[in-house]
Every structure is written in structure tokens, then in C-alpha cells.
Amino acid sequence: MFLSSQKFILSFLVFTFSFYLLKAQVSGPEQDCSNAISVCQDIYVQNESYEGFGDMQEILIQNTSCLLNGENNSVWYIFTVTGSGDLEFSIIPFANDDYDFALYDLTGLSCSDILTGVAPEVRCNYSGTLGPTGLQSGFTGISEGAGGPPFSAPLPVNVGETYALVIDNFTSSDDGYTLDFTASSAQILDNVPPELANVNTSGCDESFFLEVILSEPVLCSSIDPDGTNFSLSGPDNLNILSASSDDCDAGGAFTSIIVLELDQYIINGGAYTLDLHGSDNGTFLEDNCGNIAISDQLVFQANNIIIPDIEYEISTGCSNDTVTIINNTEGNVTDIIWNFGNGMTSSDFAPEITVLSGGVLNVTVEMESSDCVVQESFTVQLSDGFNAAFTSLTSPICANEDIEFEITTPAFADNYNWIFPDGVTYDIENPVHSFAEAGTYSISLTIANSFEGCTETVLQDVVVNPRPNAIINVPSILCSGEVIVLDESSIGNISAYTWNTGDGNTYETANPQHVYEMEGTFDISLFVSDGICGTDSTVTTITVNQSPEFSLGADTSICFSETLVIEPDFPPDFDSFQWSTGQDNVTSIEVSTTPEIVWLEITADGCTRRDSLEVTSGTDECPLPISIPNAFTPNESGINDVFRPVAKNVETFEMQIFNRWGQKLFSTNVINNGWDGTFNNADQPMGVYVYDIRIRFLDGRDEYFTGNLHLIR
User: Dihedrals φ, ψ of 113, to 5°?
Assistant: First the structure.
């Protein structure tokens, strides 16, 4: 942690120092791996440091173990091992600067493989120590962080291996360094010309390309785009059309992978020879160290591939189809098996099968060569055979409408016989017919082919839908205020209704209810639609007469034994009337019993109207029919000698008399029996007494009374 902080502080100080000295760093294409500087000797002197990281930041967190900040004032080098041993090097700064590095194995790979993490990082050092750094004997670390030693362990290498080295100037100075490999037991002094290392084919896939792997990177500028650096011989007569490289196409300066484009597939397997032409051919490959390729040959094996090319033909009979396979497959097919998905198989190269017409064959074929296996799948749509079938070009079918019928199979019939249920026949291919009524009809069609001798008959039902017919069912005369059901009995599969009552109201249900409030003549219209065969509408006229206008008044109540006189205002010019009581020829009636509902019907111009009135007992509003005196004089004068209440319409009665000490002196259940002022035949003294009266009236009311009674002598 302390050393990492030191590296940060040192970076700041060096940056500040560089700013005040106004020193300039250099930049160039070699700051990207694809244009790396080739190291072909043991000592390389870099006079000036670099600034930035080129066109692309190639050091990311996923492809480095220690350069956590990525490229920082970096430059790339590339070299090829010419002698096996331990690789050691030193980066010796001209000043006391902090340089870091990462080393990647590019053998058989390209610079783009560094960015993706495919090319392995084999050594890395991010030490914060100022001064020399590199690979040196006596150190064991593979990857060193900011707090680690400045040197990492040597790397064992072999002849022909290629490595890319990125060097970063952490202190951002413009002073250069010396890159020294003299301590290595391995050799990088490159005087070996590039050679053919390997050839990759496409295996069993169809491809026009070969991938050529060289023993070391060569300059992109030395690759002839026409491919004349190479020639190819083998079982197939193949020509090379072009040579290219992804690294070169991306702007790189070198590559170890060249792609050759051929004029045709390699179909016949076996041994092929790729020739690399040297300088005697006029065009030659050159490696990063100026070594020119000499003539070289590489024998490689190619597979016997199979290139499927399959077609088929169908011949149709009366009820069978013959499927003929046309197999134009290229390659040395040694074994083949067909599966037609219906239980039929074949091992013929181009089989022919006969199957029942109709449906689909799901065909698979597996073909083998000595090296490859290829599977293909396809479907064969069989014909319908000589089967009679037809359809109507108009859907849905409606009554009284011309309908065109069309035969759907087959195309090679030459005789037709249509029979319709109304006895009409046709001998043409596609007749036009109409049906007078709705219903389900069975149509017969017979087709024939006189040349093949095929005949087929089919019976097919068609559904004829009725045309909508709007029908209104309402009386012609109505009365105002009367509820009318707008009834309809329309014909057809009606799905939508629109009513217009002629008085400004509309409805969209089948049988709505309506009330005409005013007299007059109104046109009722109905519009219907079935969503299938169209629409229809109709209109009918009704007369609305004025209903008699009168009222019995609001519901009311009467007290017990009262009489209510009902006397409505009769409308002028009425024809007849009737009371619920059965009384005739009277314009008023009396009601004295409750509860009772009284109604009156009056008829005028054919319209009868009824009004009703409910009469109930008004017990809460009626006065109590009882009188209770508060004094009496029992002196045998014949006047006010007995205490008793006066009441009417009594159903039950109970009265008790108490003195001031609560002693009961008198009780009776008969309202006409009163207290004469005695108790046990003894006159009671003058004073105040208490009465307690409980009474139920004939109208059902229960009442309780208590109070003071004065006895005066």
C-alpha cells in the first residue's frame, strides 16, 4: 500500500516537472501492436519516450494481470525466438524513470487476440521502483504489482515462438531507454526466413478458403493480393484467386496468418501440396527482420466433402403421386439412406417412390463419404390427386344472391356435372347459382378425365343465410302514459337494432319499452343488421290518444270512527268509470274503515286510466278519546260522588287507586265502575290520592295514565 502511494506521488511529481520543462514526447503507429517495432538484435535503443496509447487501448482489465491503468505512454515491440532457452531482458531508462511492461505470447496468433484475451500474458511488471526493470535471473514473480520488485522471472522459450512486448512510461517523461536482451540464453537475433507452419481446411464444410499459418509474422506489404506467393496441387485442379489477412485489412503492418481464396471447393479428399515461392518467383514474403522467404512446401490432408444438391419432380395419377428424386450432389458419396416420413426408406442414390395423393412427405437424407456425414431435410407437397372438391367465391352465402362456385382440385378434369337441390344442373367448370330460400343444401359435383379414365363425385353441404327482414309488432292505437313494448319478429340472424319512436327517442335493443307522454300520430321505424347478409328497415304508424287526467289525491289516514269523503274531479267527455268499492253512478264515496285501498278507473276515447288511494289509521295524529277528572266529592249529593274516567272505543281497561303511602285502596277492570272514596267500607280522609290507568283502544293503541286525585269532603 505504501509503495502504491509512492508510485502515485512520483507520477504527480514527474508530471509537474515535465510540465515546467515543456518537454515533448513522440507518438507513432508503433503504439499499436499491429504496427509493433520488430526487434531483430540483442540491443535496441529507444531514444525518446512515447505519449498516449496509439489508436486503440489494447490493455484492458480482462487481458492483463498488473497494468491496471491500461496502456500509458506505451510502445509495442515484436520478436521471434531463433534459439531456445531462457528469455531475459532489461529496460534501462536514460533517466531515473518508472517504466512498466507486459509480455504476450503471439505464437500462431495475431495482435487482435491480445484485445480479446486469447493471446496469453506470460509476464507483467508494474513495480513502482524507479530505474531498470525487466526479466532477470534470481527473480521468481510472474506478475508484479506496484509494490513488487522491478524484475520478474525469466521466461523459457522455444525456437519459432513469437512474442509482443508493450512498454509503458509511467513517469511520462520524454527520456528514452535501452532494451537489452544480452543476458538471455535464448536467441532473438533473427536471420531465419519465414516458412510454412500449417494449413487449416474447413473440415467437412463447404468453403473456398484455406488458412495458412506461417512460422513467424511477415510484412503485409510483402503479401501479393493475387496469391502469387503460393500455388496448390492435389486431387482437385484448384487455382488460387487471392491472398488476404485480417490483421493487414485492419491496418496492421505484419501477420502470421494468410487466407487463400480458391476458385472452387476442395471436394475430393487426400493429400494436397501448398508451395510457398521464394525470391526466384519474382514475389516473396519478408519477415519483420528483413529475412526473405525461400521456396517451401507443405503437404496437408483434405476431407472428402459432400455438397448436397437435391431436387424432385411429382407425377400425378388418379389417386397416386410418383415422386422422382433428382440428386445432383457433388462428392464421393459412399453410403446414402433416404427416409420419406411415411415408413418408406431407400438406399438408392436417386430413388423414385409412388404414394397416395394428398398431404406432405417429410423427407430426410443422410449421405456419407470416407470423411464426412451430411444430413438434409425438405418437404414434398403432394397433389390432391383426382379428388372432387369445390368452394364458393362468395362468403357468406345469402339467399337471392348470385354465388360463383369454383372447383379447387384437380386441374386436369375435362368433364363436369353439377346438380343443385332445386333440380338445376350445370356442365361447366365454375357455375353461378342462387338460392331462393335460406337453409342447408347438398350440392353434387362429378368430375372426370376422359384420357386417364378418372371419375370422382363429391356431395358437399352449403349453408345459405337468410337476408334480414325487419318486422314491427305494435298496436295501432295507444294511450298516453301507457308502457308499450316495441316488439319485433324480424327474420334473419339479427345482431344490431336501431329503433326510432318518432317522438325524439331511440333505442338499440331488440324489444325496448317506451312511454308516449303526449297524444298524436307517430312513425315508429326499425333498422336491423345481421352482419352477414346486410340490413333492412321498416316503418309503422301509431295513434296515441290522451289518457283521462284525474287524481284521487295523495295517500292519507283517518282517526278511529272518522269518515273520509273521496270526491275527485272527473275529466270532461269521459265514457265510463268504475270504483273499487263496486259503487256505480256516484262521483264520490265515503271510507270509514282502515286500512283500505280505493281505486277509480275512468275510460275516455278508448283509454282507461286508474288512480288509487291508500287510507290507513292515523293513530299517531288522532286525539285520545278519554277524559280523566282530577277531583271528586263523595258526599252522596248525587253529583261527582264517584271518581271514574270517561272514554270511548275501549277494548280493555284497568284502574288502581293508591294513597300517599302506596297502599292500594281500589282496583277495577270495568270502565263504568268508579271509586266512591272508601276502603273496606270506611270513608277515606280528604286529601291527595294517586290513580294508575292502563287502557287499550279499539284502534290498537295501548295507553298508560297516572296522576294525582283530590278527594274533597
Answer: -75, -15
